[in-house]
Amino acid sequence: MKSSAKEKILDAALSVIRAKGYSATSVDDLCAAAGVTKGAFFHHFKSKEDLAVAAAQYWSDMTGKLFAAAPYHAHERPLDRVLGYVDFRKAILQRSLPEFTCLVGTMVQEAYDSNPAIRDACARSINGHAHTLEADIDAAINEFGIEPPWTAPSLALFTQSVLQGAFILAKAKNGASVAADCVDHLRRYIEMLFSQPQVKEYAP
Amino acid sequence: MKSSAKEKILDAALSVIRAKGYSATSVDDLCAAAGVTKGAFFHHFKSKEDLAVAAAQYWSDMTGKLFAAAPYHAHERPLDRVLGYVDFRKAILQRSLPEFTCLVGTMVQEAYDSNPAIRDACARSINGHAHTLEADIDAAINEFGIEPPWTAPSLALFTQSVLQGAFILAKAKNGASVAADCVDHLRRYIEMLFSQPQVKEYAP
DNA sequence: ACGACCATACCAACCGGTTGGTATGTTTGT
DNA sequence: ACAAACATACCAACCGGTTGGTATGGTCGT
């Protein structure tokens, strides 16, 4: 049997925690969703916190594969790859709410102050994903020959900020359309950054 | 006695829930932080859920007063008021992490799927706050005589998306500087929207 | 003025159910 | 045979919520 209990528990964690949040998800919930017993759970994870850290890593692995295999990498021009990433994120919003939201974005809100191990695991996941954008952004900067007052890592993190915030708005409004609007603004911002001379700081 | 038990519980809710999250915050936690007994709690709130809904409203009232009294409204030009709002948000980031983050943004992540009453209360709070920006944005559109492909409500919600996402990144990285960077990007975007002809959709 | 009446505000003790976690098996793969 | 992979049974602590009760202060008829 390849899909072992451990993997079933991790899969269950992704969906259940994204729907209910980390604290509200009990170990029993996870076991029921995974179809395993508590004994199996504590055989593979020494605590609920340990599961959360493993789930964050598992989430990174899964999404890493998803984005690595996405078609936007095929674009020749760096800016097209960056905008292709944004379009790809927008396309994912078609799925249902608990399916397109972010596991680590949800967990870190509950754990940042009380559980450093989970917080750091979430930070690694977000930073790692943002990092995959930096090379293309830097290449686009070179392609356009601009000398922007911002850096590639900073813009990469900004895209994540918009997406994480869009998820929150989508949850509040119980629909994805507001998130799609936010992604549109993000796309327009990136287009503008590469389509014209940088504006000077506006200070009245 | 002016500061009654009810108000002490609500004040405690704002800080404790922002630090620990909604589910991880027990009624006993709230009572201990507020210095009241459980009897007092359930006298004023018929359930923990009821407290959460009331806390979201209380949060709206508090932040509403804060932003209504903020100095950026004094600017003559509408765009200066919009940018002044952004700068004001950035200034608030100086405070400590649990102090500058958003109660309803935290709660809605845990409640959107399992607790519609809390979700709707959070949505009202976010929408209400975003709405306070719309008049200035519309006035800025008129001032500049532009006909943008986006609407004032959409841009107002986008600002909230950036801020909510910035809070998540700040929690993950355990520091406010990444949030400040995001707000800088947001400011640059708004400046660009009003400082040049709109770019056409970029489609390779 | 004054007790009868009553609503509000609050309290300490308690309840049944759930929690994360453990102790002790039993099954399975090699 | 033997360890890793699972299952069963169980526990102490904690959970949200209820209980029966007290203290306070306002309102009413008289």
Global morphology of chain A: elongated
CATH architecture of chain A: Orthogonal Bundle
Roughly how much helix do the residues of chain A carry, as a percent range? over 70%
CATH class of chain A: Mainly Alpha
SSE pattern of chain A: HHHHHHHHHH
Whole-number count of domains of chain A: 1
Describe this structure in words.
The structure is a homodimer of 204-residue chains. Chain A contains 10 helices and no strands. Chain A is mainly α. The first copy, chain A, has a single domain, classed as Tetracycline Repressor, domain 2 (Orthogonal Bundle), CATH 1.10.357.10. In chain A, α1 (5-20) packs across α2, α7 crosses α8 and α9 (152-173) packs antiparallel against α10. The termini of chain A are far apart. The model of chain A is unreliable at 198-204 (pLDDT under 50). At the A-B interface, α7, α8, α9 and α10 of A face α7, α8, α9 and α10 of B. Chain A binds a DNA duplex (30 and 30 nucleotides) through α3.
Brief write-up:
The structure is a homodimer of 204-residue chains. The first copy, chain A, is mainly α and 204 residues long.
Question: Which tags fit this structure?
Answer:
Tetracycline Repressor, domain 2; homodimer; DNA-binding; disordered C terminus
